[in-house]
Amino acid sequence: MPRKNRLKTVLTKALITILSVEVLLIVPLNVQAVKSPKAKEIITVGEEPVVSDLPNNTPVIEPRGIVTSWQVSKSYDGMNYGGWVTYGNRKKSKSTGTIAFTVKTKVYASYSGSVKVGIKKVEATLGFSVSNYKEYSMTNTWNCKKNTEYKVQYRKRYKTYKVTQKRTDINSWTGQIYTKKYYVTVKKPDGIDVRVVES
Length: 199
What we know:
five-stranded antiparallel sheet; single chain; 2 helices; Proaerolysin, Chain A, domain 3; alpha+beta; two-stranded antiparallel sheet
């Protein structure tokens, strides 16, 4: 083989060898980068990436917790009265006289507002049921003028109470305290008022 051709063959083999070495150097490095046991796996939680290969003694932050407590109290809020209701009447008469009457009716307890702690807790704070009733009766007489018409009327009477439900939330993460109050107005039967009016 001529010397020129032998030189060309040697150079060609050398070039192939160099290319082969570069491939061997490049490919294993890429593979190693993918299969390395030390590679960090990234897990996305919401918008914040979290690295999963943390040491075993690294503390885990628990979700923020809210500790809630309730305080319930009552206060007397005065008297409350229903509207006047006509029970009976006496027509005009040419002579004087009297009206004899007996008014008998039931008065029911009631409540309004936002119950947050349960009705049983509200009743325990008040000391009575908010769904009970009492029956009241009143008998009386009234002197009447002649030529005058009269009406016998009654109204229901209540004692009112305000029940305060105070909610306290403590953020176990930040220590911040939040409070909010909810109110219930309760009417407790207290009796009836009766009157006679000219009409």
